[in-house]
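[Meeting: bench + compute handoff]

Bench side (C.D.) handed over the final construct sequence. Compute side (W.E.) agreed to return the predicted structure before the next meeting so the bench team could plan truncations. Sequence as handed over:
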Amino acid sequence: MKRITALLLSTALLLSGCGSSSSAAVESTASSTGTLPAGTYTGSAPGRNGTVTVEVTLSDSAITDVKVADSKETENIGTAATEQLPEKIVAQQSYAVDGLSGATLSSNAVKNAVKDALESAGVDPERFNVPEEHTTGQKIEDTADVVVVGGGGAGLAAAVSAVQSGAESVIIVEKTDILGGDTNVNGGIYNTPDEDLQSKTEMTEGNKQQVEAALAETPVSDEHAALQAKVKEEYDAYLASGETGIFDSADWYALQTWNGGDKVANLTLVENMAEKAYSGYQWLEDLGATFKDSISQGPGSLYPRTHDTTTGLGAEFVDTYATYLQNNYGDNWKVYYGVTADELIVDDNGAVTGVHGTDSDDNEYTISAANGVVLATGGFAGNVEMRVEYCQGEKWPDLGSNLGCTGVASDTGDGINMAKAIGANLVDMDQIQLLHMCSPTKGTTDDNSAKDKGVASIIFVNKEGNRFTAEDGRRDDICKAALAQTDGLFYAIESWDGNDGQTLDTLVTNNGVTYTDEIAQGNMYIGDTLEDLAAAIGVDPDNLKKAVEDYNASVDAGATNDEFGRTTFTDKLETGPFIAVPRKPSAHHTMGGVQINTNTEVLDTDGNVIEGLYAAGEVTGGIHGANRLGGNAIVDTVVYGKTAGEQAAAYNRD
């Protein structure tokens, strides 16, 4: 049976060395039954982000300790494997324990590193290659006040909100063995107007042009006109005040979000999200999340209202929720891990009463809700068949298996299909977002430098060394431009400016790998001069120099626009060494899903509420339209996840 526990995900991996040690292979050839060579031995194996090194301590008859001595695996995904598997290996005296679904590569790295350590000790590894035994075919039933299907960002927000709203018990049904979902691989960015921080950042002419252009548009509806009028009133008051900081408001945030999604989204849902974004930000801080004391403009966010977590990782949101739940409501929540939900259970009146699921051992689970059920299973970017069925067309002519996916493996649209099966209406299913800042080899957002999170300090060049797009533009526009380049590949170029006091060993990418290691793995390139960098990445040096020089000239001139439509010109690229990070678009976010109202109630094809069922996060549609702004994904999960938890806890079946 799968684990049933309230799992507290740690935020760091703090592992010390052992007493005695030996990494050299000993001459002993211990058989499967003989005495073991007591001591501590080192082994290593390739993981997702680099080499995983373990130290295995043996007595004369058993494995007594396994420690992960070095690892660069992804926070809350790979680190879950490096933290949990050593203890399992010791307990079961076998490295053939089950890995964690959702962290297969990291799990295999730990197990293979232990095998390598045994071999270095001269021990026949087959002695400790005993597969786990499993209980199969059981039928498990359980009940809670609120059942949350999906343990990602939206699901965890709903769980926290539910217990805060009075639910005495919450069960999370999670498909993988790890909490967090796509939030674990999010860049840790959250958009919201913030008068205090934005007042410290200068409003540029480019920012003013953005606002004025939106206000000058011919409205497409009365609702659009009304929102423009509110923004105009606020903007006029801002101009009259003489303020120099960034102008922003919930209304301008909503208008820009709606416009950025090509006016496809449900404007009421957009306005509700924008209105509650700042209170959601404060809620996160109250739970324990920490943010940098500055405003940035995240990639694809279109405006300087982005708040970055202190760690620079979306995993911080996951840790915040799990830590808060464990510390304050440890007896009120639990998680069924490795259970794939496959059916929403409804009563004779059509109200949702629970969920059915199975695990990899063919055990069946029926989890019932005394109050409400929250659907938070994420999108379908990882489901090639659904991508092709719903989204492939004129905008994206090829969304097949050659396209990578930034998300976790569980992004397969399960919740959307379950909801559709009971009559839920689906909206915006043809809308999918590609993300440009992705690894050409992994398809994920791994290996992005810290500067790649913003747009002020980077430019993009193609394989010929030429700029080709506005780096601060919409994600879909950048992706279309990138896919049109040679091999669909480009390089994010940055300089050493702003890296005072840092070294290649202290600077880390978004997945926690040092620049030194990224360069060694071929995920990043470096050159003391632009000519050196051009040689490293194989582009025309004259083209690369011209791209940088022209961009720097625009900064010097105080430009507000260029031939590509870029409006951000604040940081020059002057000082070597210069860095290049190869990038390529991948499937990123599916904007379509089940239809909800502002109370997160799921609606059927006739527009009626499906009783007892709420939804939040990427499983829903109608919020982001045709293009999601960078930094809005977490806002969506917080605002609507929090609402879903409140509503589900309050739902009364009587």
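W.E. noted at the follow-up: The first strand starts at residue 4 and ends at 5. C.D. will use this when planning the next construct.
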